[in-house]
Amino acid sequence: MTTQVTNGIKVSVNTNFEGTFFKNYKMHFAFGYTITIENQSKDSVQLNSRHWKIYDALNDLELLDGEGVIGKKPVILPGESHTYNSGCLLASPIGAMKGHYNMINFGTSEKIRVYIPTFKFSAPFALN
């Protein structure tokens, strides 16, 4: 598990290899990840958007921005958490992701950036 705390918001990530498949005559490697966002601060927060940097061992950096997470903009109360599952397709068996969430702190009305730690993907057969 990879974990990072920013402004009292703890982000924890677990990854897993889902398998390989062909798409558009190319081999792809599917990875899944589970993210838990835990509010350790004294104020309620809302996740509004996300920014990802996706690294593939065979390709250039891919940037991805979007609203919320998996179609939701969760409000996380103090002491509570939000967990979701998502996935990533890579052209190689090794890669990584990192990024940040843009949130609103309801106690201070401030926009905050909560960092998502770098987490790595590796297919079991790609490692010695």
TrEMBL record:
One of its GO terms (biological process) is error-free translesion synthesis. This is ApaG protein. Pfam families: DUF525. It comes from the Bacteria. Residues 3-128 form the ApaG domain. InterPro entries: ApaG_domain, ApaG_sf.
